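sorry for the late reply, my laptop died twice this morning and i had to redo everyting from scratch. anyway the thing you sent over, i finally got around to it. pasting the sequence first so we're on the same page, its 232 residues, then the predicted structure underneath. double check i copied it right bc i was rushing
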Amino acid sequence: MVSKLKVLSAGAVKRGVAQIAAEFGKAHGIEVEVEFAPVPEVRRRIGGGEAADVVVATPAALDEFEKAKLIVPATRGRIGRSRMGVVVHADAQAPAITDTDSFMHVLRNASAVVHNEASSGIYAAQLLARLGLAAELGERIVVVKGGAAVMEYVAAHPPAAVGLAQISEVMVLIAKGCRVKLAAPLPDAIQNYTTYDAAATAASAEAKSAAALARALTDEAAKKVFADTGIS
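ok and here's the structure:
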C-alpha cells in the first residue's frame, strides 16, 4: 500500500500544486509531501539523483530530465504559464506602469530593484541589461534566492524598494500577509511567460500513484485551480 509520495516543485506554482497535492492525498489516503525550490535547484537535485516521485519545473528542465531518462515521458503534462509583475510595498503609492518607458522610470527611482536567481530572475537580469539599466542601477540591484525572498525584501525596505517577480508568487505571499502589493504586470512589450510542466520520475517506487498525481496536476480540473492562482 502506498503511504507517501514526494513532489519537488518550482515555487512559482506553489499555491496550485499544494492544493491539488493535498486534495489528491486526501482522496487516495496517501501522504503527499511537497517541497518547493527555484528551478535551478530542482535541476541540480533531480539531476543529482535525489529521490522524488513527481517533479514540477520548466519545460527546459523536464527536457533535460527526459533526455537523461529521469522522468517517465508518458506522464508529462503542461501545468500552465506565469507572467511577471512589479511589486511595491503595501503602503507605497502604486506607480503607473503602462509601457517600457514608465517601467524604466519606476526602476530608476527605486531605492532597490530586487529579483531572484531562479527562472524569472534570470529573465529580469537579462531585461535590465537589455534596457541599459544594469550598469545604471549598479549596487541598487539586489539578487535573492527565491520568489518569496523578493517580496520579503520589498516588505522590509519601505517605501521605495521594487521587486520583479512571478505574479503567481506575489499572490501567494500577499495571501500570507506579506506587506506588498502588485503594482502592475510587466508591460506587454517586455513581458515574460514562464511555463511549467509536471511528470512522474522514473525512479519512483510508486510508479502508478506518481503517474496519477502527475495527471492530477495537469488535467482540466487542475487548470481551473491554477487559473485562480495566476497561472494560465
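The chain has two domains: 4-80+195-227, 82-190.
thats about all i looked at so far, will dig more tmrw
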